[in-house]
């Protein structure tokens, strides 16, 4: 197991391409996207159910040293178009032997 950073972003789907490009430019090449996300934000008056555009949830993992370029690339997009980003610690388990023993 080794330490990685978990990046979770919720934004409107219109900005998905810019966000994924920012992750890729920072060196984070893998991600998952969940479309049509609904919910209620932490800020007063923010309700993801009431937006005109679909929202997306993006989850990605990266090495801790890639975190600074990720933030530098993603923050301007979120500041301009809205959205949230959370970064937490996670542990990755690499499995190199996928053969079950019997």
TrEMBL record:
Q: Which Pfam families match?
A: P-II
User: Which segments does the entry list as coiled coil?
Assistant: none
Superkingdom, natural source = Bacteria
Choose any GO biological process term that the UniProt entry carries and state it.
regulation of nitrogen utilization
- Which InterPro entries does the record associate with it? N-reg_PII, N-reg_PII-like_a/b, N-reg_PII/ATP_PRibTrfase_C
Q: Name one GO molecular function term.
A: enzyme regulator activity
Q: What is this protein called?
A: Transcriptional regulator
Recorded source organism is Chroogloeocystis siderophila 5.2 s.c.1
């Amino acid at each position: 197991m080794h330490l990685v950073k978990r990046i979770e972003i919720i934004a409107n789907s219109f900005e998905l391409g810019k966000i994924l490009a920012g992750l890729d430019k920072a060196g984070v090449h893998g991600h998952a996207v969940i479309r049509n996300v609904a919910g209620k934000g932490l800020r007063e008056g923010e309700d993801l159910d009431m937006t005109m555009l679909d929202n997306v949830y993006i989850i990605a993992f990266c090495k801790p040293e890639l975190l600074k370029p990720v933030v530098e690339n993603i923050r301007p997009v979120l500041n301009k178009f809205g959205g949230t980003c959370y970064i937490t610690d996670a542990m990755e388990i690499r499995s190199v032997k996928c053969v079950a023993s019997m």
